[in-house]
Amino acid sequence: MLKQICSAAFLIFGVMIITPVFSAAESTVPEPFQRFDPASKYSISYADLNTILKKVVVDVGRSSREVAEPTQAKTGTRVRANIKRSTIKEGNRFYFEIFNGDAETTQLLLDIQKNLEGVPTEAPLEYFSRDEQLAYWLNLYNLTMINQVIRVYPERKLKKLLTGKKSILGKKLLNVAGVPLSLNDIQHTILKQNYENNPLVLYGLYQGIIGGPNIRKSAYTAYNVQRNLEKNAAEFVNSNRGTYAKSETTFRASSLYDRNRDFFPNFQADLKKHLLVYLQGSEKRELEAAKTIKPDISDWTVTDLYGTYPQLGGSFSDSNAALLGAVQSTTPADGGSGSVSSGFSNVSGKLISKSSPVSYVSPELITYLREIKVRQDIANYDKGTVTVEEMGEVPVDPPEESGAEPDSDPDSEGND
Predict the structure, then answer these.
(1) CA-CA distance, 258 to 19, in Å (whole number)?
(2) 301 three-class SS
(3) Which DSSP state fits 385?
(4) DSSP 92-111
(5) Rounded to 10 degrees, what is the CA torsion of 219, 221, 227, 232?
(6) Cα torsion for 14, 20, 23, 26, to the nearest 10°?
(7) How far is CA 100 from the centre of its chain?
(8) DSSP letter, residue 270
(9) Left, alpha or beta for 55 (phi > 0: left; psi -120 to 50: alpha)?
(10) Of 128, 138, 141, whose CA–CA distance to 33 is shortest?
């Protein structure tokens, strides 16, 4: 209903200019997601999602390309942890353990996902800028992926979840503005077409596995999305899970690129050009000299902190301790500055207590949409036609003064 109100308002009042990226004949993006407003001043809030990410994402820093030592079984057992030594110490971690068996906290994430799905019903995406829309799609995709991984956790290897005929990526898990969508629809149709086949968007799509792009400690926003995609790209490309010099003639790259060949039409040439933008050090020289890129690097291990691994000692035990230390050093305790909490023992309660219902759309936009509603009612009344029914109640705060500075970027916690 809100969609009809907004469309009619454009025809009558001509108050906005919405620019499509593709013509209607070219685009296969669903109609509600084709347009945008390049001059939009409106934004979407992710306060609740930020609360989650700041507490349960562990930033492990840039890769040193260090290969872990072989694992050693503890005394009294012959069993060793089966790990990929070249990548085990790489990639940010999500504390999936805290959601395992915790129905209340798990439902909290599902509720946030459902609320994000409903944003375009509250305010059509065409009212937002392209960067605002990009941040929206990345956040919705990533939260949906997190919820799907939680469903199968403590499954350790996620290859079956992400590949094959039964992959979750092809299932219509979402309904946005009345349009059933899969994660593949978001990635390979909406993002691919609306952002001109730019492979940079791939680095914002969390896969739940070590072999994929990083999950960040804060949500994407219009103000940080381009910068943070560049950071994720540089981190991934300069890691063992992203690239690896194999020989003088062959250069290895992540299977992520193989699974996304539609972003690299002339695969070998386009991928090489793309990687050279971000590669540093000796690997860049190796790629320049290589004749072939072999996209076969994979690590399907879930990016949990340590819960799916047996405590078997050896090099993984050392990595485990390092990751846990990173958690403790970045999670301030409530007792005051300078103190740290003991791991995540109380995370569940804190998440729930601090995640209250929020309005995702700015009060200014809600006010504007209501003004359009009033104008449409007047126009219908003058024409003797029946007016559309009143929009649902949405709390409206007093609009901020024009020219106010945007909120500070929350992604400033050493996530470079």
Answers:
(1) 32
(2) strand
(3) P
(4) -EE-GGGGTT-HHHHHHHHH
(5) 30
(6) -150
(7) 21
(8) H
(9) alpha
(10) 128
Q: What stretch of H or E contains 175?
A: strand 174-176
Query: Which DSSP symbol is given to 127?
Result: G
> Both tokens of residue 255?
């299977």
Q: What pLDDT digit, counting tens, does each position of 177-215 carry?
A: 999 999 999 999 999 999 999 999 999 999 999 999 999
What tokens does 91 get?
């990639």
Rounded Cα–Cα distance for residues 72 and 80 (Å): 6
Six-digit token string for 337: 């500055």
**Within 13 Å, how many C-alpha atoms sit on residue 207's CB side?**
28
The DSSP line for 23-80 is: -TTT--S-GGGS---TT----B--HHHHHHHHHHEE---S---PPPPPP-PPTT----
pLDDT in tens, 8-38: 333 322 333 334 444 445 789 999 999 999 9
Cis peptide before 395 (omega within 30 of 0): no
Higher pLDDT, 382 or 245: 245
DSSP classification of residue 128: S
Report how far residue 328's alpha carbon sits from residue 385's, in angstroms, rounded to the nearest whole number.
63
Nearest Cα residue to 183 out of 113, 119, 130: 113
Report how far apart, in Å, the C-alpha atoms of 316 and of each of 72, 238, 270, 355 are: 9, 22, 36, 34
The first and second tokens of residue 7, run together, are 């469309």
Phi, psi of 297, deg, nearest 5:
-80, 125
Handedness of CA 321, 327, 329, 332 (dihedral sign): negative
Q: Which two tokens stand for residue 253?
A: 């790259």
